[in-house]
User: What shape does this take?
Amino acid sequence: MPSTDPNNNRVQLCEASVAAKLFNRVASLRVASGLTQSELAARIQVSPETVAAIENGRQDATLLTALRMSRALRTEVPNIFREQPFPKLIGSERGESRTA
Assistant: This one.
């Protein structure tokens, strides 16, 4: 049953607004790694549809999925997900991060 505590509702609203602002670069890192959505999905134990939904921002990754993605893409979680947009990179996603 939903809570009617106004403080609890504020926390939920705050969490929802943070989740709505998460940006990711799963697709660009996946492509740079030479993986298809199906290959990444198999490595992180989710469906290809889940990978597509995460890439398109229709679904948030769970912590476990984010950790598995970081291993599969050979990077740290903060390099995949963050609250602010990622700067546009010149050259390879995996190379030196020079901003445009």
Notes: The helical segments are 6-20, 26-32, 37-44, 48-55, 63-72.
